[in-house]
Here is the input.
Amino acid sequence: MIRFCHGSTTTRNPVGVTLTNAITRGIKVVYSLTNIQPKAVMSYHDLNIPVSSSTVSVKVFDTAKPGAHLSMSIPAAAFFEPILPSHEHVSMPILAFLVEHKATGNRIMFDLGIRSDIENANPHTAVLMQKLISRPDKDVIDQMEAIGVERESIKTVIWSHTHFDHIGDMTKLPASTNIVIHRDMELETWDKKPSSILLPSDIAGHNITRIDFTASPLKLGSFDAFDYFGDGSFYLLDVPGHQLGHMGALARVTPTTFLFLGGDAAHHPGLLRPTAQLHANYPFPASASPSISEDHFGSGDFTARTTPLLTTADTGGKFHADAAATQRSVLGITAFDGNPDVWTLCTHDDSLRPFFEDEGYPVQLDKWKAQGWKEKTMWAFLDEQNPAFRFK
Here is the structure.
C-alpha cells in the first residue's frame, strides 16, 4: 500500500539566503553568503522553528566495517572540489540513526546504512559495493539488537534516499515496518529498471508513505518541512539535489536543541565551513591556517574567510543528480550549521568518526550541546591528523 502524507498547517517564513553564482573552470560553483551577518547571539528561533516541549531521543550507529574506513576507494572528485594531490580518495562512515519519540515510545530509523551481505544486493550494485568498501560484519539491525532494541520495535524506516548505503536490508524487518519516502522518490526495482538499486524484497509487503512537501506551508530555514509526529519533535525536510526525492531531518532532542540530519547533501564538512554566520560563535582556528594550501584555497586571512573551503562537484549527474540543486541545499544547511542550537550531522562526515569511536557506538546524541560536542568537532576536519583532512 502506498499513501500520501500531507503537511502541517503551521506557517513560517523561510530564512532568506542569497546565492551568487559564478561558474569557473567549467563546473565549479562559487558562492557567497550575502545576507547572513554574524550575530553575537543566535538561537533556533532564527530558523523559524516552532516552539515545542516535545522531543525525541537519537542514537547514531556506523554501519561501515570498523577499522576499514581507510580501505575505501571512493573517488573524492565525485563529491567536491578542489582535490589536492594525495587526497584523491575519501574514507567515510555510513551513519544510521535510531529515533525514539519520547511521548509514545515510537521507534523509527532515519536510514539503515549498508547491508552486511553486500554480495546479495542486485548484481550491478553488489559488484560496485565490493569494489568500493569492505564487507561489514554487522548491519544496523544486528547492532541495535546487541543493545536490546528488537527489530520488531521499529515502526518505521525513513529513507533519506534510495542509494545502497542508506536502504539497508529491509528483509530483516517485519512486514509491519513502514517505509517513508519523499513524494518524488522512484521505487522501480532492478528487475524492471536495470539501473535501479532496489530489489523487489526491499519494499515487498511494507506499507509505503510518500511525504508531499508541496502540501505543507511549513518552512524551517530555507527548507520545506513536514512535522512527522505532529508535535514539533521531528521534522522531515525537502533537501533536493543528491537524488530526486532526497530528504533530511531535524530532530528536537531537548526543547531548545536540535540535530540536523543532512543525509548525502554534503559529503564533507568543508562544504559547509567557514561562513560569516559561523564565525560569530565558532571562530575559525588561526592555528589551522598553515595547514591550508594557499595555491588551492587562496592567500589571505583564513580566520576572516566567509565562504566554505570546498564546493560541490558536478559530474553530469553521475553522483549528484543535480549538482546545482545540491549546492543550493548545502547553502541552506549552513544556516543551521552556524546556529548554536543545531548540530549538523551528515551521513558521511569522516571528521566525526574519531570522536564517535572514542565515545563508543552507538552514541547517544541528546545532550550534545550540554556536553560541548559541537565546539569539540566543528573544526576537527582542519586537523592534519583527522581522517577528513584534505587541504595541504
Notes: The CA atoms of residues 116 and 135 lie 6 Å apart. The domain at 2-382 is CATH 3.60.15.10 (Metallo-beta-lactamase; Chain A). The first helix runs from residue 123 to 132.
